[in-house]
Amino acid sequence: MMTAILSPQPGAATADVPTAHPELRLRLNPALDRKGTVDGAWWPRTRDAAAELPALIAAVGERSGRNVLRVGVHRDAWDHIPHRIPTPGRQVRVGWFRSADPSLVTLSLAGTEPVTLLVVPPGTAEETATAALTLAAAGTVGVSPGDILHPAAPEGGSGGPEGHADRDSS
Question: Record's InterPro entries (predicted)?
């Protein structure tokens, strides 16, 4: 079982930080400066939005020190999407869209820019998922979400023809 991965406050070490959400697999850019393609990555265990979103909302709110007001997800990427998620003293609205990137989730926060997270698919191998979590939190200026999830094979590596990783094309 992987422990929670929440990035520490700016200036702190980058080690994993235990939280009140030990099952949550989340890594955020320490600065949350919104300069990259994404502000971090989240690796949910299922595609059940009603089951997965409450812990994400709580952890991002805790890490940012701000209330999460709304969550935006791609409609076809999730099952059981509720209209609202109850949180202590309020409800967080959930919007679902078909125009959004299905590999992203966006959390609107009170008084600041939204936080955009790469969603690592639930069935992803642990090594691949951990690499995506780390890369997404390290800074992603100019890197597409797809490149974070499926990085190219390193030069001189075991990639296929012309340096591209072998992929099953069936």
Answer: DUF5994 (IPR046036)
